[in-house]
Amino acid sequence: MNLSTNSNINKAEAIIRFDGVTKQYESDPAVLKDVSFEIERGKFYTLLGPSGCGKTTILRLIAGFTAPTKGSIYFNGQMINHIPANKRQVNTVFQDYALFPHLNVFENIAFGLRIKKMKQAEIKEKVQEALRFVNLSGYENREITEMSGGQRQRVAIARAIVNRPEIILLDEPLSALDLKLRTEMQVELRELQRRLGITFIFVTHDQEEALAMSDEIFVLSEGRIQQSGTPMDIYDEPINRFVADFIGESNIVDGRMKADYVVEFAGKSFECVDKGLQPNEPIDIVIRPEDLEITRPEDGKMQVRVETQLFRGVHFEIQCADEAGNKWLVHSTRKAEVGETIGLTFDPEAIHVMRFNETEEEFDRRLESYS
Ligand SMILES: Nc1ncnc2c1ncn2[C@@H]1O[C@H](COP(=O)(O)OP(=O)(O)OP(=O)(O)O)[C@@H](O)[C@H]1O
Ligand SMILES: [Mg+2]
């Protein structure tokens, strides 16, 4: 037997695959439109997008709480469209935790194991192990009503991991927590996922949370995946206006591709790293605020007038306008004066060129051709 070939096969197999999945509730327009993606085993995935874009619907389809209208869902290579929820190796942590208020911590976590008629000694061992994982050893006999929000959150996670499912789905599990606890739980959850090695699919509409926690992010809008990739891929190379605007702060302006490596915006031509577009093709340009550097007016690639300035602790947030009327947000450790004219400079790599209606495959191929 050829071992290397064998391990390649294992590596390539997706734990979840959506193939052209459409979901439509009654006569309403489709909530998910021909969605295809793959989830690899053991990674932390995040579904990110605004309210109503279909994040929870994707989780419900994976869990088996609802079925696709069209298309197929595969689990370890097997079509599972018609497999009921209780036969799937998937557990869900809901936004409101859905704990049983009349049961104590131990019984909340043991609930699913009791339904499976597991022996008491085994239940005890598993519950205690799950509690250790979420740092709640010793809390077995506490009532749920005597636990804080963060502790309830951990109980809900312990209940999801107790039977070691292959996938855990987490639907905005941190949204009820205050900012400090939320940040702590982000670190804990990420650490827990690494230790367990279980595939996590996490839902949030908070872009910073998605960037901080994920191996892979799917950015969703209006029932479609706009872009998928690592946090750095998506932050550094957004595919379109929606993604650029949704992920981080961006300067997005209209431009034109004059020729290979030359782009025009704000009434001027600039050197860029992009090629292979049509001459004079209209495009969107993105430059991140931290990629703009303040200079003396005569040393800048652009001259802009400072409109507002806010001190944000680490940097100043400076809002400027150029003569063509474009607004430019700058993050700088240098202070400017409101009303003064300053220069802005940036590297050719800081200019991100986005074509209209480019598919993810075309986009990826274009970026690969640059390197
Ligand atoms: N059972 C249902 N029947 C009819 N429409 C539904 C049903 N469930 C969800 N929808 C609709 O599907 C769309 C997507 O809903 P979904 O819950 O997936 O959004 P979401 O991305 O999770 O949003 P949020 O961030 O607000 O939780 C919404 O327009 C919603 O109204
Ligand atoms: Mg939702």
From TrEMBL:
Residue ranges of the ABC transporter domain?
A: 16-247
Instruction: State the organism named in the record.
Output: Paenibacillus albus
Q: Does the keyword Transport apply?
A: yes
The protein's name: Spermidine/putrescine import ATP-binding protein PotA
Keywords, in A-Z order: ATP-binding, Cell membrane, Membrane, Nucleotide-binding, Translocase, Transport
Tell me which domain of life the UniProt entry assigns to the organism this sequence originates from.
Answer: Bacteria
Q: Name one GO cellular component term.
A: ATP-binding cassette (ABC) transporter complex
What CDD domains would the database entry show?
Answer: ABC_PotA_N
Q: Which family, according to UniProt?
A: Belongs to the ABC transporter superfamily. Spermidine/putrescine importer (TC 3.A.1.11.1) family.
| EC numbers | 7.6.2.11
- Quaternary structure annotation from Swiss-Prot or TrEMBL: The complex is composed of two ATP-binding proteins (PotA), two transmembrane proteins (PotB and PotC) and a solute-binding protein (PotD).
Q: Which InterPro entries match?
A: AAA+_ATPase, ABC_SmlMolc_Importer, ABC_transporter-like_ATP-bd, ABC_transporter-like_CS, Mo/tungstate-bd_C_term_dom, P-loop_NTPase, PotA-like, PotA_ATP-bd
Q: Respond yes or no to whether keyword S-adenosyl-L-methionine is given for this record.
A: no
Q: What does this protein do?
A: Part of the ABC transporter complex PotABCD involved in spermidine/putrescine import. Responsible for energy coupling to the transport system.
Question: Example GO molecular function term?
Answer: ATP hydrolysis activity
NCBIfam families (alphabetical) = potA
